[in-house]
Write a structure and sequence with these properties.
The complex is a heterodimer of chains A (about 130) and B (about 230). Chain A has 2 domains: about 70 residues, Orthogonal Bundle (Arc Repressor Mutant, subunit A); about 30 residues, no CATH class. Helix content of chain A is about 60%, strand content about 5%. Chain A contains 5 helices and 2 strands. In chain A, strand 1 and strand 2 form a beta hairpin. In chain A, helix 1 packs across helix 3, helix 1 crosses helix 4 and helix 2 packs across helix 3. The mean pLDDT of chain A is about 90. Chain B has about 230 residues and is α/β, with parallel strands linked by helices. Chain B starts with a strand and ends with a helix. Chain B is globular and about 50 Å long. In chain B, the strands form 2 sheets. A 6-stranded mixed sheet of chain B has the order 6-7-8-3-9-10, with helices on both faces. Chain B has one domain: P-loop containing nucleotide triphosphate hydrolases (Rossmann fold). Chain B is built from 9 helices and 10 strands. The chains are: A mainly alpha (about 130), B alpha/beta (about 230). At the A-B interface, helix 3 of A face helix 6 and helix 8 of B.
């Protein structure tokens, strides 16, 4: 089965995160129609009730919307996608900096190393 | 809406041992429920009682408002722990059996699934491997348009890839107002398709909660909680 889930968080929340990522990355396009709950549940290998709950929550957050008979769609506003991207970005940065702090690096050092890494200098610098 | 399955004070003794002891539960429609417990905790006894092939010594049971009997057998699809077809039968004979026995059997659905599994309906049951026999049995059971599916260890003897197929089969075939009760040891495999779990311990209900609640409150999977509750 396709989607991977971790142990400590309710599955519907993990589904919400995955769909948010799909919207942010454009895998699900702005305004795109989603498959039926059942199809999505099957693709993810989860209970349809769980998928339904995740989608209803996403709808409440304004990331998806329903048209009465036509089905469920990704919200059409570009700002929503932007917002999601930023939210995810901030999340990644936070975890990243936390991990770096554990290793004893300050934010300034990390920034410096990242810039060096980008230039392809990491080999003769920090990591030898 | 009324609950689909109701058990009240079920007790079943085998000699001195009580397999079920004053067991009560109400299960709503439209849910997939895991019946989890260690060996000998009473899972199979409960399932057999609900399917009408065991008479409990005490207590009451109802399915869709009816006492267990011919009427409930029409709407209950039961997968036993072990496949029961004679090895002399061909797969297509078992299809005929189900067609004769159960008015809600969808032969087409069954045939399509067998085709996906590349099981030849002309094969003799005896010539099939244990895992394949289990798959045939599950295909038959899930091809009924039943109200209640009672699945006793549906994945006992099959490989991980086939387990995925089995889970998919269950997800695809149960309809929204039916409930599925699955007894299993392979918790981590089924966890994501379950709405709720029942922990059964020495014939008594130890816990009945939704999977989300368990994960939220305990910050761990059902599998991890099970290992804790039933640690030896």
């Amino acid at each position: 089965m396709e989607w991977k889930f971790t142990d400590d968080i309710p599955i519907y929340q993990q589904i919400m995160d995955i769909i948010k990522q799909q919207i942010a990355s454009g895998e699900l396009a702005v305004g795109e129609k989603l498959p039926s709950v059942r199809e999505m549940a099957l693709a993810a290998g989860v209970n349809p009730n769980t998928m339904q709950k995740a989608l209803a929550e996403l709808e409440r957050e304004g990331l998806l919307y329903s048209k009465r008979t036509a089905g469920r769609f990704v919200a059409e506003q570009e700002e929503i996608k932007k917002g999601l991207q930023e939210e995810l970005l901030m999340g990644y940065i936070e975890t990243f900096l936390k991990n770096m702090a554990k290793l004893g690096y300050t934010v300034e050092e990390v920034v410096e190393i990242i810039l060096k890494h980008e230039k392809g200098e990491e080999k003769d610098g920090q990591f030898n | 809406m009324d609950n689909l399955i109701k058990c009240e004070g079920l007790t079943k003794r085998y000699g001195k041992n009580a397999a079920l002891w004053n067991f009560s539960v109400e299960i709503p429609a439209g849910k997939i429920i895991g019946l989890l417990g260690p060996n000998g905790s009473g899972k199979t006894t409960l399932i057999k009682s609900l399917s009408g092939i065991l008479m409990p010594d005490a207590g009451k049971m109802e399915i869709a408002g009816k006492e267990i009997g011919t009427e409930t057998k029409k709407i209950v699809s039961y997968l036993p722990e072990r496949p029961y077809f004679s090895s002399a039968l061909r797969v297509k004979d078992t299809l005929c059996f189900f067609e004769d026995f159960y008015g809600d059997f969808q032969r087409k659905t069954a045939e399509e699934m067998l085709k996906t599994l590349q099981i030849d309906t002309n094969s003799k049951i005896g010539s099939l491997s244990k895992g394949t026999r289990e798959k045939v049995q599950l295909v038959l059971v899930m091809s009924r348009k039943a109200k209640v599916y009672l699945l006793d260890e549906p994945m006992g003897g099959v490989d991980p890839a086939a387990r995925d197929f089995i889970l998919k089969t269950i997800l695809t075939n149960y309809n929204e107002d039916a409930s599925v009760l699955i007894s299993t040891h392979l918790i981590s495999d089924v966890e994501k398709i379950l709405d709720e779990v029942i922990f059964i311990k020495q014939g008594k209900m130890a816990l009945y909660k939704s999977v989300d609640e368990i994960r939220m409150e305990e910050k761990k999977s059902v599998d991890a909680l099970f290992r804790e509750v039933f640690a030896c």
